[in-house]
Structures are given as C-alpha cells and as structure tokens.
Design a protein that fits this description.
The chain has 210 residues and is mostly helical. It has 2 domains: 86 residues, no CATH class; 114 residues, Up-down Bundle (de novo design (two linked rop proteins)). The chain is 57% helix and 0% strand. It contains 6 helices and no strands. Helix 3 packs antiparallel against helix 4, helix 3 runs antiparallel to helix 6 and helix 4 packs antiparallel against helix 5. The protein is globular and about 50 Å long. It starts with 57 loop residues before the first helix and ends with a helix.
C-alpha cells in the first residue's frame, strides 16, 4: 500500500466479519492484505487481544487506522483494559507471597537497607553487611519454608527465620549503642520485629500441629 491509497477499497466501517479475534491478521503480508477488508464492523466480535502477542506489527496497524477514530479508540481501550488484565491474571502468586508475615518481613528488609545507607563507610563490610544478611534471611527462610512439603522441614526454616529476626534486633541495638542509629528509629523497627516474631511463632506452632 502506498500511504493510505489502499483504503479506497474499504466500504465505510462495516466489516472484518471474517476475522475470529485477530487471528485472521496472521495471514496478512505486512499490511497489503488490508486491501481486502470491507470495514470495521466485525471488531465487535474480537475477544481480547490475545492474538496480538503473535503479531509483529500491531502499532503499524494502529498508525494506519489513525484517521478512523472508531478503530483508534477501540485499540486504546483494549490495550488499557483487556491486555493489562490478561497480563495481571496470568501472573501466578506463590504461597509465601500470600503470607502476611512474609510481606511484613519484606518491608522490614527494605527499611533496614535504607537505614544502613547512612552508616559509616568503615562499617560497610561490618555492621552493614551483618544487618542486611540477617534481615534478608528472615523473609528468605519464610519463603523457603512455605515451599517444603514436610511439617518438619517447614518448622525448621521458620525457626531459622525467627533466629535471624533476633539476630537483626541484636545488631540494631548495638548500632544504636554506637550512635549509628537513632533511638526513635530503633523503637519503630523493634515494634515491627515484635509483631513479626509473634506471627512467626504462630506459624511455627501451626506447622507443628498439622
């Protein structure tokens, strides 16, 4: 097609009746096959945009039909609502991601990483490294424990997570003693650690009583 001359053969916006979804577009060579299309009425029958995954020219198609506001609006709406929903629904959520204790541990990890950025450079391979490894061990062991099949294994990893949590608290207290961490920040982190410890205890009891 040269420019939009090939569109002269289109009769209004009445058609694409032969297309099931966008599968029919697979057979188009570039955009030349659009000469056979008789309009856009058949767009009502499109079911999502799953077939777009296999198309290599969706945005060329979009640009070609820019003069037709109906198709342009349809395309934009599908991208915003249908395709995004398809992507979100296709993401699998693992069991540990649904655990509140894991999510709280994850947030605690982020906070401690941010706080340790201001520690002295001399502690880069000392307190900073120890704190970060200890806190990340908490959510890591919760995740690993939730994937284990046996009750014994689950309880084992949850206990390691609890031990790492206590190690984290110990190092935070020492960081405050060394004036690396303000007392107010320590109090806030200690409160979060206390909440996580109670949740971990319940998780350990639950895994032992299955």
């Amino acid at each position: 097609m040269k420019g939009l001359k090939g569109l002269k053969g289109l009769k209004g916006l009445k058609g694409l009746k032969g297309l099931n979804g966008l599968k029919g577009l697979k057979e188009l060579n570039g955009l030349k096959g659009l000469k056979r299309l008789k309009g856009l009425k058949g767009l009502k029958r499109l079911k999502g945009l799953k077939e777009l995954k296999e198309l290599c020219f969706p945005f060329q198609l979009f640009q070609l039909f820019q003069p037709f506001q109906l198709f342009q609006q349809f395309f934009v709406n599908c991208i915003r609502h249908r395709c995004i929903n398809l992507i979100i629904k296709s993401m699998y959520t693992f069991s540990f991601e649904r655990l509140e204790v894991w999510n709280k541990s994850r947030l605690l990890t982020k906070k401690i990483y941010n706080e340790t950025k201001d520690f002295p450079d001399s502690e880069k391979f000392g307190m900073v490294s120890q704190l970060r490894r200890a806190v990340i061990s908490v959510c890591s062991n919760i995740a690993e424990g939730s994937s284990r099949k046996s009750k014994k294994d689950q309880s084992h990893f949850y206990n390691i997570a609890f031990s790492s949590l206590m190690e984290t608290l110990n190092q935070l207290i020492i960081s405050n003693d060394l004036d690396y961490l303000e007392f107010q920040v320590l109090s806030e982190l200690r409160s979060e650690i206390h909440t996580i410890s109670l949740m971990l205890n319940r998780l350990i009891v639950y895994s032992n009583s299955k």
